[in-house]
Amino acid sequence: MQLRKIKKIQDAEKIAAGEVVERPANVVKELIENSIDAGSQEIRLIVKKAGKALIQIIDDGIGIPPDDIEFAFERHTSSKIRSIEDLDNLHTLGFRGEALASIAAVSQVEIISRTEEKDLGIQLFIEGGKITKRKEISCPIGTNVKVKNIFYNIPARQKFLKSDSTELGHITDIMQRYALAYPDIHFIYRHNDLDILNCPPNDLKTTVFHVYGKSNAKFMEPINYSEQDIKISGLLGHPQISKKNRNYSSLFINRRYVISDLLFRAIQEAYKGVLMIGKHPFFILNIELDPSVIDFNVHPKKLHIRFERDEYVYNRVYNIIRGFIEENFIIKEAKYISTELELFIPGKESDLIKENTHELEEIKRPIKEIRERKKDKSTSKEFLNEKGELIDETVQLHLTDNIIGEEETM
Ligand SMILES: Nc1ncnc2c1ncn2[C@@H]1O[C@H](COP(=O)(O)OP(=O)(O)OP(=O)(O)O)[C@@H](O)[C@H]1O
Ligand SMILES: [Mg+2]
């Protein structure tokens, strides 16, 4: 093999940008996070051709000072952290100072931003990372970023983009997650002049209603747990709205959307016994932890995280969620079924009672006894329900009458 001299790679910034920007949805995520960090109350996303032609985010946040605006597009420049030690006390979504530089390296960017202190804002045009024009402009306080023609200067990347519907699906997904993480912010989302989402500031349940519809929202129970080391808030879906995949599981750590196999497993495990085999729980949870025990800097897209003590976090989350599920989806559920049936039973035994004697006896047995039986794995059996689906024995007690034949939307 021939030896080659080590030299600086030309256009290295375009290659590095690929780690942050792989598709339009990554741009959307970075821009939304910047708008949230800027304290915006309204974030408006306008997309053309599934983000391939235009991604525009307009916010009413604090804006970028005129002296800093060019700097914001340089790599490793940020107003959010000053050194690596600050990661131990991270309270912003951004921390690498890389997003705008990466986006600008692979697209045509136009930004307008104004702070409260100034009467005029600055407009900047950037092509492939190079600033081509700057001027003062009259505009509202906040930031308005247009990202046009993504990968216009890297045809090889452009051809790896998927169909409009796939790319749009990814954008919608990220927009919905942030609407759920920040129900106090007004999110507006438009594609090709069609309104896709308009989520005014609300409580989380109303936001779920906007995003997933009434049939899902009404089967979500609020959780609010607070201890010194951990806080868990959000909504846990009733087992009857569980889904075939994890798309409906939204997990936020310190209000950052993350994908954590460890925590997904803890939550799934906590639902054990009330979910049908192969189903995933529907939940929207924000877990607040001390930032010093989490490493957010694992992956360039900031979606994955690492914990200092995996086992501790797993057990804490599992126990809290399990306690909630037992209380709300097992004990209350059994009481509910029991009361309903009592009302239904006339003085003398009917055919219904005969048919359901076994089930009724089960329900009437003290909850404690049922719990203990569940704990004893050796007695737990799996069997097929009337639809031929494999379910756990404990599911029969609470859910057989409740399974709704809802269409999966994803
Ligand atoms: N919408 C916005 N409103 C106000 N300031 C912004 C906005 N977008 C970017 N900025 C400023 O530009 C800087 C650079 O943004 P950029 O997204 O590149 O880096 P970051 O957010 O600091 O870190 P990360 O790369 O992790 O996102 C930010 O630190 C912030 O000061
Ligand atoms: Mg950022």
SSE order and pairing:
Layout: H1 12-20, H2 24-37, E1 42-48, E2 54-59, H3 99-105, E3 108-114, E4 121-127, E5 130-137, E6 142-148, H4 155-158, H5 164-181, E7 186-191, E8 194-199, H6 204-212, H7 214-217, E9 220-226, E10 231-237, E11 249-253, E12 256-257, H8 261-270, E13 283-288, E14 294-295, E15 306-307, H9 310-344, H10 351-355, H11 357-364, H12 367-375, E16 382-384, E17 390-392, H13 393-399
Parallel strand pairs: 1-7, 11-13
Antiparallel strand pairs: 1-2, 2-6, 3-4, 3-6, 4-5, 7-8, 9-10, 10-13, 11-12, 14-15, 16-17
Could you characterize what this model shows?
There is one protein chain. The chain has 410 residues and is α+β, with helices and mostly antiparallel strands. It folds into two domains: 12-201, 2-Layer Sandwich (Heat Shock Protein 90); 213-410, Ribosomal Protein S5, domain 2, CATH 3.30.230.10. The protein is built from 13 helices and 17 strands. It has helices spanning 12-20, 24-37, 99-105, 155-158, 164-181, 204-212, 214-217, 261-270, 310-344, 351-355, 357-364, 367-375, 393-399; strands at 42-48, 54-59, 108-114, 121-127, 130-137, 142-148, 186-191, 194-199, 220-226, 231-237, 249-253, 256-257, 283-288, 294-295, 306-307, 382-384, 390-392. The chain has an eight-stranded mixed β-sheet with strand order 5-4-3-6-2-1-7-8. It has a five-stranded mixed β-sheet with strand order 9-10-13-11-12, sandwiched between helices. A two-stranded antiparallel ribbon has the order 14-15. A hairpin with a 5-residue loop joins strand 1 and strand 2 (54-59). Helix 2 (24-37) packs parallel to helix 5, helix 5 packs antiparallel against helix 6 (204-212) and helix 8 runs parallel beside helix 9 (310-344). The radius of gyration is 26 Å and the shape is globular. The model is unreliable at 344-367 and 377-410 (pLDDT under 50). The structure holds adenosine-5'-triphosphate and magnesium ion (MG). Residues 30, 33-34, 94, 99 line the site of magnesium ion (MG).
